[in-house]
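Let's do one together. I've listed all components of the complex below, 657 residues spread over two lines.
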Amino acid sequence: MSVLTVRHSARALAAACFVGGLSVGCGGGESGPEGDALRVALLTSGPVSDAGWYAGAYEGLLLIEESLGAQVSHQQTRSPAEFDEAFFSYGSSGYDLVFAHGFEYQDAALRAGEEFPGMTIVVSSGGRISENVRSLIFRLEEGSYLAGMMAGGLTRSKVVGMVGGVAIPPAQGTFRAFEAGARVIDPDVEVLEAFIGSWDDVAAAREAAAAQLNRGADVLVHNTDAASFGVFQAVREAHGDEQPVWAIGMNRDQNDVAPDVIAGSAAIDIPRAFLRVASRFIAGDLPSGAFDLSLDEGVVDFIVNPAALHRIPAELLARIDEARTAIREGALEVPRIRFLEGESGTP
Amino acid sequence: MDAAALQAFLEASVRLGAPLALAALGETISERAGVINIGLEGSIIGGALGGALGALLTGSPGAGVLAGAAAGTAIAGVFALFAIGLNADQIIVGTAATLGGLGITGVVYQSVFGATGTALTLPTLPALPLPGLSALPAVGPALFSQAWTTYLAYLLAPALWYYLFRTRWGLELRAVGEEPGAADAAGIRVRRTRVLAVLGAGFLAGIAGAHLALAHAGTFAEGMSAGRGFIAIAVVVLGRWNPLLVLLASLFFGAASALQFELQAVFANVPYQLLLAFPYLLTLAALAGWIGRSRAPAALARPWPPRSGE
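Okay, and this is what the predicted structure of the assembly comes out as:
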């Protein structure tokens, strides 16, 4: 309920600013990192109870509150029409740093950045940047590549499946890398792909997963939010001791979400990434433009599920470790989709 | 498509169609009484969470379905209070019921299971194969090896058809939806009829939500109703406000959705957005070509007693 209260008070303040004709200079632009407590906000376009992408961001926000004594607030926007309103509520009530957690916020972030020059917006997987709008790019494809190797090594049917929410470039990037990883282990492995058009539709994800399982897939990876529960559930129902069927977690360490069927997770340590951004923001050395966080920084990794460890061939684990080292040392470049505007290689 | 694939497709069609059928059958009654409840989505998500919590607390998925039905009815009760009791605009109150239902279920879920959520494993409603019928080739397992909530939808369709078109109570309910003034003059209690119809629709939408959580997904996630309440309202139109056709329309929509997942696997080069739109395009085509002269109940969405100036 505290979230709702914060949201309402932010709106009330915004309204008061308007009524008083003080919209310029009311709140935003004046309170910097120094002085009062740092004010940090998080925007998500799905529920933070997804045990994945948004849950990690919410944990990051709480970590910033705890470690840096910041005053924090979270809003869930339910439709793109609410993006501008949400930025406005934070901008007009003097928030210093706003994490807009997803590619979908990039355009609204640019507009808000112009309107509130004193507010810094960090868009996760954002493709557009400006003076005060930065992009936080997680090189999740590095973890996803290792996850693909795991899938390629575990599959007996030589068919693996990928269930996605919406085919935005960051999600497609993880799938291309997953595919490449699986084919490194076995060039003949067949890779199925489906998108459900939603990040939260558990039933649709379950059906998409079931369709892939029916076509012989025995390792499924997802890149969705709360809908991942449907993928795990479908795998759980198909899983047998004689014929193991595996799921692979994505975005956050999901190994404990369905420990019986998850082989491992291509994970971002989002709390650590957010804390690092906030600390550098306070120190005044937040890099301009895009901020890449990769396997090398320890923010992205593939984490084998400890509960499944004894069922995974040691040789496969060794190959994954080798590849991890090679990626870290720069000897192995993982295929990626570049989506930062102006970056070399963008379409 | 080989036999096994065909059977898998048919099973998926019924799984996807059953919750729609339950919700749409309830909405049919509500709309026949002149109330369009676009808060159906709120009742479905309420039913899903109620079903999940009820099943977890008691260990019995059957008790979960009852809890889900109660939650769906409660949300419909709030709608009825404002839309009928206070004569507020049905569309606005319905929108509020949907948003409120999504919000409240989120708050309750996060307070019980933690803000960052978890993949619950719920006690599920088992498939109950009907002796004989489930042995029919292809359609047998798909139609007759399902959870009992699916059979409830099959039974409700003819029962509600009989109620609407062959009983005096059904006639009275339809009169309320067509000519509330005349119904009132004939001594029918218009508001009471409407409230009961809305509560009944909420009850069924709650069962639809519980079915989604307990028979289909086996888990709960915030927002898992994913627009099914709105699709159910479209299905009512597609089924021409006739419970038998509404059941068929629900299964038709379920089949189109299931086919879409198969098509994604087969046509990897077709943009998936086109395939996702497939059930909706098919529905539009069916509406344009098949629905003919059917029309909505004349007093649909009109408050009673009429506000001054209407």
